[in-house]
User: Which sequence fits this backbone?
């Protein structure tokens, strides 16, 4: 790989991964000429080349326009659903978390203050996460205890 010489099998698999993300036609294009959303999908394809059991995405949509942000989040959701790969996404966009994730874990000051479904993420839970209200100050938010990582959830 130092000399940009990759085995044929790896090149073929890379095209397959890019095709799954709707990017096969961009395979020979330099990454710097791609849009932000396209660059993110190429990064996801590169990660998928490693056959991960868990995919971690740290703020994958932070600098994207809304159309590309939705495309990237749909891609991550599809990977979770079709390949049974756990996808953990760090987001600050609650609307995206509610739309694309089945499980949301809210953290504040290094601790978990919310763990539940998008439907359970109401204004009181958001206040607990962002405003730092204590549980006593916020109306009680009930969450079922569960493991932090499981193969059937995408988390934010």
Assistant:
């Amino acid at each position: 790989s130092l000399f940009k010489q990759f085995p044929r099998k790896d090149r073929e698999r890379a095209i397959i991964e890019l095709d799954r993300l709707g990017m096969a036609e961009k395979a020979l294009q330099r990454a710097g000429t791609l849009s932000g959303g396209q660059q993110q999908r190429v990064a996801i394809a590169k990660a998928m080349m490693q056959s991960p059991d868990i995919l971690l995405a740290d703020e994958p949509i932070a600098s994207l326009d809304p159309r590309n942000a939705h495309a990237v989040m749909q891609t991550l959701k599809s990977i979770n659903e079709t390949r049974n790969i756990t996808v953990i996404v760090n987001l600050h966009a609650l609307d995206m978390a509610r739309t694309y994730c089945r499980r949301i874990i809210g953290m504040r000051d290094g601790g978990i203050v919310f763990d539940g479904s998008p439907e359970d993420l109401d204004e009181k839970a958001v206040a607990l996460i962002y405003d730092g209200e204590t549980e006593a100050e916020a109306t009680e938010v009930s969450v079922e205890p569960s493991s932090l990582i499981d193969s059937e959830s995408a988390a934010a």
